[in-house]
Amino acid sequence: MSYDGVDEAFSATAACSGITAYSALKKLKHLKSDQTVLIIGAGGVGLAAVGMAKAVLKSRIIVADVDPLKREAALKAGADEVIDSGKRRIIKELLKETDDVPYGVVDFVGAPATCSFGFQVLAKGRTLVVVGLYGRSMDLSLSMLPHLK
Fold first, then answer.
1. Distance CA 43, CA 70 (A)
2. CB 84: neighbour CB atoms within 10 A?
3. φ, ψ for residue 63, nearest 5 deg
């Protein structure tokens, strides 16, 4: 059954993952078109964010995931670029290859490794949004705190 041409199964997921992704992206609405956003995690909610990112933000979108199939799905969903966040030396590579470090990071995994990765590549004084609830904790250098907003 559908409602005005929208499949019930799709609309049920959109009500959860769609609103979650939209809410996270709206936290970065202040970014400009020449600033990069990094989305970590191309699972269901992350892909929902990638799919609507260009409509919500005018920024360049990079997606990080360890799974090559999810990276491919992110490109098909509209990502400008994808990276393997599990790759050795990826932080140096990302910072060297991009014209600008990410001004916004949305972590749809929320694991210690992904949060740490997001924090390390984030421009100083910018926004890290953690959506995923993987759990546990992350070490944070106290010397970095004066640079946080």
1. 7
2. 14
3. -115, 135
List of E strands, 24-121: 36-40, 60-64, 81-83, 104-107
Task: Give the pLDDT confidence score for residue 10 in this predicted structure.
Answer: 75
Q: What are 89's two structure tokens?
A: 């030396």
pLDDT of residue 3: 64
- Which residue segments constitute the domains of the chain, with CATH numbers given? 30-132 (3.40.50.720)
Condensed to tens digits (0 to 9), the pLDDT of residues 26-81 reads: 999 999 998 999 999 999 999 999 999 999 998 999 999 999 999 999 999 999 99
- 4-32 in b/e form (b: 16+ CB < 10 A) is eeeeeeeeeeeeebbebbbebbeebeebe
